[in-house]
Target: Phosphate-specific transport system accessory protein PhoU
Amino acid sequence: MRDQYYEQLDAIVDDLVSLTGSVRKAVAESTRALLEADGNVAEAVIAGDKDIDEATEMIEERALLLLATQQPVATDLRQLVATLRMLTDLQRMGDLSVHVAKVARRRMPDSAVPVKLHPTIAAMASVADSMIDSASRIVANRDVKAAAELEAEDDEMDKLRRELLRSVLNVEWQHGVEPAIDLALLGRYYERIGDHAVSMARRVVYLVTGQGQLT
Amino acid sequence: MRDQYYEQLDAIVDDLVSLTGSVRKAVAESTRALLEADGNVAEAVIAGDKDIDEATEMIEERALLLLATQQPVATDLRQLVATLRMLTDLQRMGDLSVHVAKVARRRMPDSAVPVKLHPTIAAMASVADSMIDSASRIVANRDVKAAAELEAEDDEMDKLRRELLRSVLNVEWQHGVEPAIDLALLGRYYERIGDHAVSMARRVVYLVTGQGQLT
Model:
């Protein structure tokens, strides 16, 4: 009975890690749509979000079923509750990559990002990618030490967002108000993607050490 | 035993409704800080967020304790899981009101909102206020019909946000890029506050009718 329980719990963690991979791909593809002004890629990210939503709901249903049938207590209970929370994080990260793809689509056939700022956006996307990868490994291996690195990456993300805003607010900015707003919102979307990765990691740290915040 | 369980569950719902009141106040106060350029009010919202976080964690701990000790199944289990999710919504709404207060603080002694756009921001805040109030009543009374009204208010919020963006992108806009970005972000913050109210309502609808999405 208990063995079967742990098998099911492990299967849920595996699926959570696999879903994290899908979300990571959505973020990378939405960035590609943005920087290469590729409408097909943007549409694929937008259409693909329903797969992420469906996967989320399927894992969620199984976690709830396990809660109801096995009635775990203590750490096992907390792990399932943490899983439910991480699913919410992943679903939001998927939504945020849809927002990025929609900004890309709105400005077709141009890129929403002036060429000079491509490196900054590419750097934010790369930090986000690395943060999602770290979160995934932390979930898979309960690697609490990696969580500290993730916080450092989050600082890097904040730095990049400030850099982006400085460029947009510079007196030499010549692209007008609309691209400035797009970039401010894009900066916010990538920052939030990073925040959700940090939040996933913190949930694992809390599970393993009992330290830190639950939410 | 079961009676005591329902008493505890009711107490948790009462506390959730009371927390919703605190969040509603934070949103209203952050808007006041913004429109009246009142630094003291902005600081109070920012400092007060830790009370919202603490209340969230306290209710969460009690919900987890009830899960662990009473091991509810079926609807009772789903209600506790929905409660945990609604707590995440409320905490995020508190964070978003802090974001609004920080925009207000950054532009002191001026208002971050040009006088001409005060009515639009006031209208967004008023719709947000009404949406949080609806969500609170839906949670308290399981009033599924009110959830439909909430969706209509969400449409109104979207309309106001588009109106705000149109003003900022109008050729007659004379306030420069920085206030434009502030307003685009403020629009996003109020929209997200509304989204979280909708998400709370949907969770109650799902609980009562079994229809709709869990997340």
